Amino acid sequence: MIGKSSKGFARALVAGASIMALAFAAACGSGQSTAQASGSTSDDITQQTITPGKLTIATGDPAYEPWVMDDKPESGKGFEAALAYAVADKLGFSKSDVVWTRTTFDTAIAPGPKNWDLNIQQFGITQERKKAVDFSSSYYNDTQSVIVKKDSKYADATSLAQLKDAKIGAMIGTEGYDYAKKLITDDVQTFNDDAAVAQALDAGQIDAMITGTVESVYIVQSGQVKNGKVIGKVPGSEDHSGTGIVLPKDSKLTAPVTKAMDELKADGTLKKLQDTWLAEYTTDLTELAK
Q1: Which stretches within the chain are classed as H helix?
Q2: Which residue segments constitute the domains of the chain, with CATH numbers given?
Q3: N or C: which terminus of the chain carries fewer CB neighbours within 10 A?
Q4: Rounded Cα distance, 192 and 207, in Å
Q5: pLDDT tens digits, 106-159
Q6: pTM across the whole model
Q7: 21: which residues sit within 8 A by CB, 6+ positions away?
């Protein structure tokens, strides 16, 4: 038989245990709601970057118009510069939180750690490159075009077949190189960047160069190839996979950046930026015959 004092003590133990359980549950619940209300750093995009609170974006060295105007991406002028800031805004970064840096094209898509969060310099999205880096969804579908000198014997060429004896140059690892090798000649002279290809054409070391259509028009307009001429687009060269922002492999920002890009497409921002910065570079060019 249990005495009154024993029953009181038992009830006290049960009550105490219940209070402790409730307190523990309340503490756990309070901790979760506080984290959710304040925003856990694991879910805060701005804290997932190389430098927390800053978004480091890389571009080419130099960066060319109309992608970046006057080689000053921080101005936000030029298609890719303006797009980069639009993506940053979608991710929650102000313009003052964006830090620009420079890389070469080939090192950006090479395997290994990166010292930037995003890299934007007309990277075509390919399965091979996806083995080393991540991509956002595409923001532009470029074509390839051919540049020659106006006083060249190839100046009036209207087909790729007429270029079969020409010395063709292209930047290594690009769509231009692939199309030149596939459609014109196996003997394509390669260079580290488009500026070097343009210099070779300007100096008469090669007869023609192939690069993106927008870049081709700019190279001629800017006088990188004096007396240059874009004779036409390479047939069937539209990049159906498109051009995307590069991110380090398995980056935590890949999904958010892709979501941001898709939203910019859906709300019309992407088209507006294309119309603003690219229209004059993509019109009035004919397609070469094979």
Answers
A1: 4-38, 79-91, 105-108, 127-130, 175-183, 194-202, 213-221, 254-266, 269-277, 279-282
A2: 45-141+240-282 (3.40.190.10), 144-233 (3.40.190.10)
A3: N
A4: 18
A5: 999 999 999 999 999 999 899 999 999 999 999 999 899 999 999 999 999 999
A6: 0.67
A7: none
